């Protein structure tokens, strides 16, 4: 009942509305908590860099945590270090091999040549399940002289996002034991590792807009039903 | 062989690139030197096979550094064509499973009869003993004589040992329901309400209370300082879930093949079963403790003994427990098969019925104690050890054994005759033969059919004593095979019988209770010593270990004087296993005879790749 003694149908439906919201939230939470992901590795890199610029490449590992990745670095690009301990990395010419123990993300640092375009390729193997595949995602980086001293084609916010990702070291288990190659290079390598929950929460940003959309939808639906003289 | 060493060498180089591992260089060279040495005797290949793939320092587990070295080597070999891969993809997968402690592989254990597929359970009106792999008790006993926790995190007794409080771990039933104190109470109540056989273990319990979700309190009728011993083994009691069994009015209505209500809290859970074929358990990956490395445990039925031997040789089974000494010798010759012994698994004795003449005469019992060649019996049985103690087995009872009583009755027929002469019931003639005083020959009828009848141990013991008792002492022995269900009736009428007991019934002074005549009735031996009974009652009320030990010493001294039984020997259990499939069999000795033991199976680690 409202102040005037008349009942507001929307108020009467408040419990149902809240319950629906809870169910919706639960649905998305469950989905976020149990990702059924087939094994893959995705590479993210800047599309352009300045000559001799140091930049980072991120490999996001999905659907497995233990295995190997071999990256073929473009000619002229030199490897500077990675977020993994040295015992998990091997460089043979332009072939860069990573051993993943319980790692979900790797980032490595390269130095660009004076000019040219570099093409990346890579392969991975998931050791536990004995599956294999090719690294997906960004393949190409261009060295643009006009961008000297600045960022590539990605925006400053993209750069900042990449920096924060690269700061995540690979695994909690090993981060305290071994100095990463980044640290050896004096790079600002942070020790915080991304654990599983952080990884899972990566899906949650989708939940917010969907929830809002869902709530809005319900509200509109209730209004329409009210006009028609009933809800249920 | 060259290939083997090349692999080791190049993997070693990869491994040692990490500066922190350089301290292992000397160890590596020692290992390499040993391997060369063994290689000279053709044993290097076998030693290599016993290593978990990727376990470079052979410490029994694959570390992160070792796995990383193996992965880098594998990737380099596979994608850069450098050298031969150190580990195949399958071996690398096994190494990674070990590192991640993810269960892998299936261990196959044979059974001789279908009833051995699984330990006794609720549906056969038994209840669950603590030996179950699926269920767990509150505590378990170890071979050192103390207790390890299973479901109970901690426990304590009231000062008078009448109230025992157990705090439970954060464990879950295999269907996800939390284990609570209500399950503990339910187990007690259900065992008694349904009159299940294992209810006797909890005879001394008046009631169980649940003051908190994770706290169970046993209120006993009388003080019992050894209550955890009662709960823990031989057979002990495992806790089973209230929410499953509270609606089952008749547990016997369950059939393990059609209604498998195998929801326990243990490290393994039921997966599948086929009558007369197999019974399959799988790792409980939500286990509250350190879980198994083995993914599945399969029990397969091979009723024929020679069939089991062939299966082990062929590698279709991984282990063969309880083999004879002769089988052990045969299997030892095989490549990839090793035999080990679980000591003190069983104890055998020549027992007296102290109410039956002539065993009612203590001098008769003492005299015959000198007339048992224990060494010879042990030799005949194989894998046996003469028992010098009065009852407890040193391998299990440790300092509870009163060693001052040991060897009191050495094998000496002259000493036996001297004791017979001392008795008013017997005389000894000039040939050393013993007669009743009235000139009649002594004839003893011995019923056969008890626990010592398994593998005819009783007959082997009698074969040895017969040579002395009949031929040298003139005592006529007659044997009769009796049916199992009539055995106890028969031994009540006979002055002598042969008995065999699990070693775990000889491991604590509490087990001296076997000779206690309670107000409720006789013991097995019809032995009744007021002095002994008084000591036992004092022991039952003593919680202090040193006090119990002292009382136990006094009781053993009484037994040494009265000889209600002649301990003869203890036997071990011989187990043969394949060395190329799983490692860890010998690291943990089970408390009892078999390998179907939680601690044993939790310790197994796969050595060779498998596809399930």
Low-confidence stretches of chain A: 1-13, 21-35, 148-232
| CATH structural class of the largest domain in chain B | Alpha Beta
- Briefly note the structural class of the backbone of chain A: alpha+beta
Number of helices of chain B: 19
Strand order of the largest sheet of chain A: 5-8-3-1-12
Content-based structural category of chain B: alpha+beta
Terminus-to-terminus distance of chain B: 30 Å
Q: Which range best describes the helical content of chain B: under 10%, 10-25%, 25-40%, 40-55%, 55-70% or over 70%?
A: 25-40%
Strands of chain A, count: 13
What's the architecture of the largest domain in chain B in CATH terms?
A: Roll
- Identify the CATH architecture of the largest domain in chain A: Sandwich
**CATH topology descriptor of the largest domain in chain A:** Immunoglobulin-like
Largest sheet of chain B: 5 strands, antiparallel
What is the β-strand count of chain B? 23
Number of domains of chain B: 4
The chain pair with the largest interface is: A-B, 26 and 26 residues
CATH class descriptor name of the largest domain in chain A: Mainly Beta
Q: Helix content range of the residues of chain A, please?
A: 25-40%
């Amino acid at each position: 009942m409202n102040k005037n003694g008349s009942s507001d149908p929307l108020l009467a439906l408040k419990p149902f509305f809240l319950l629906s919201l809870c169910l919706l939230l639960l649905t998305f939470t469950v989905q976020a908590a149990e990702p059924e992901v087939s094994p893959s590795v995705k590479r993210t890199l800047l599309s352009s860099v300045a000559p001799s610029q140091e930049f980072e490449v991120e490999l996001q590992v999905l659907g497995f945590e233990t295995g190997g990745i071999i990256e073929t670095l473009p000619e002229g690009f030199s490897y500077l270090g990675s977020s993994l301990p040295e015992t998990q990395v091997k460089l043979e010419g332009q072939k860069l091999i990573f051993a993943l123990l319980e790692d979900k993300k790797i980032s490595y640092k390269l130095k660009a040549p004076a000019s040219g375009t570099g093409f990346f390729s890579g392969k991975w193997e998931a050791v536990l399940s004995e599956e294999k595949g090719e690294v997906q995602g960004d393949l190409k980086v261009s060295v643009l002289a006009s961008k000297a001293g600045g960022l590539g084609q990605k925006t400053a916010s993209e750069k900042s996002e990449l920096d924060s990702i690269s700061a995540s070291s690979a695994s909690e288990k090993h981060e305290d034991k071994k100095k990463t190659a980044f640290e050896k290079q004096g790079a600002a390598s942070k020790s915080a590792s991304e654990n599983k929950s952080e990884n899972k929460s990566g899906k949650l940003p989708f939940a917010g807009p969907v929830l809002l959309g869902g709530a809005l939808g319900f509200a509109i639906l209730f209004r329409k039903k009210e006009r028609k003289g009933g809800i249920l | 062989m060259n290939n083997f060493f090349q692999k080791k060498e190049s993997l070693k180089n990869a491994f040692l690139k990490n500066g922190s591992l350089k301290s292992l260089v000397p160890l590596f060279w020692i290992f390499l030197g040993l391997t060369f040495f063994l290689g000279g005797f053709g044993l290097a290949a076998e030693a290599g096979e016993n290593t978990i793939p990727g376990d470079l320092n052979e410490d029994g587990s694959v570390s992160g550094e070792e796995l990383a070295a193996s992965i880098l080597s594998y990737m380099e070999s596979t994608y850069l064509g450098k050298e031969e891969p150190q580990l195949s993809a399958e071996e690398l997968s096994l190494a990674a499973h070990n590192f991640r402690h993810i269960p892998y592989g299936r261990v196959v254990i044979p059974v001789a009869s279908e009833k051995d597929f699984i330990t006794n359970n609720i549906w056969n009106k038994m209840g669950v003993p603590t030996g179950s792999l699926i269920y767990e008790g509150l505590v378990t006993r170890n071979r050192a004589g103390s207790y390890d926790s299973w479901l109970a995190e901690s426990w304590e007794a009231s000062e008078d040992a009448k109230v025992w409080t157990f705090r439970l771990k954060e464990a879950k039933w295999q269907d996800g329901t939390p284990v609570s104190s209500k399950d503990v109470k339910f187990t007690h109540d259900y065992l008694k309400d349904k009159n299940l056989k294992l209810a006797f273990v909890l005879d001394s319990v008046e009631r169980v209370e649940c003051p908190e979700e994770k706290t169970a309190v046993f209120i006993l009728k009388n003080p019992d300082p050894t209550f955890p011993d009662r709960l823990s083994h031989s057979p002990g009691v495992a806790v089973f879930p209230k929410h499953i069994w509270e609606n089952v009015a008749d547990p016997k209505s369950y059939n393990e093949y059609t209604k498998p209500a195998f929801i326990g809290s243990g490290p393994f859970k039921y997966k599948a079963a086929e009558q007369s074929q197999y019974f399959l358990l799988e790792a409980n990956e939500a286990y509250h403790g350190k879980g198994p490395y083995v993914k599945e445990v399969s029990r397969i039925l091979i009723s024929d003994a020679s069939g089991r031997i062939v299966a082990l040789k062929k590698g279709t089974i991984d282990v063969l427990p309880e083999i004879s000494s002769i089988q052990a010798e045969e299997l030892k010759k095989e490549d990839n098969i090793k035999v080990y012994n679980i000591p003190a698994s069983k104890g055998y004795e020549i027992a007296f019925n102290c109410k039956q003449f002539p065993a009612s005469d203590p001098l008769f019992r003492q005299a015959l104690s000198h007339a048992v060649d224990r060494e010879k019996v042990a030799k005949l049985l194989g894998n046996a050890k003469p028992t010098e103690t009065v009852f407890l087995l040193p391998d299990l009872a440790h300092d509870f054994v009163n060693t001052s009583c040991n060897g009191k009755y050495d094998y000496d027929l002259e000493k036996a005759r001297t004791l017979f002469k001392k008795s008013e019931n017997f005389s000894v003639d000039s040939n050393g033969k013993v007669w009743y005083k009235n000139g009649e020959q002594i004839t003893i009828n011995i019923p056969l059919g008890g626990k010592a009848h398994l593998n005819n141990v009783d007959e082997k013991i009698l074969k040895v004593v017969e040579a002395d008792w009949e031929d040298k002492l003139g005592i006529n022995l007659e044997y009769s095979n009796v049916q199992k269900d009539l055995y106890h009736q028969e031994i009540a009428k006979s002055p002598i019988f042969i008995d065999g007991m699990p070693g775990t019934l000889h491991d604590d002074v509490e087990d001296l209770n076997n000779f206690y005549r309670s107000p409720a009735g006789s013991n097995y031996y019809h032995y009744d010593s007021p002095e002994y009974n008084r000591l036992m009652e004092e022991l039952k009320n003593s919680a202090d270990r040193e006090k119990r030990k002292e009382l136990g010493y006094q009781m053993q001294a009484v037994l040494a004087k009265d000889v209600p039984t002649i301990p003869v020997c203890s036997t071990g259990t011989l187990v043969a296993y394949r060395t190329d499939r799983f490692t860890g069999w010998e690291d943990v000795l089970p408390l009892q005879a078999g390998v179907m033991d939680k601690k044993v199976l939790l310790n197994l680690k796969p050595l060779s790749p498998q596809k399930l």
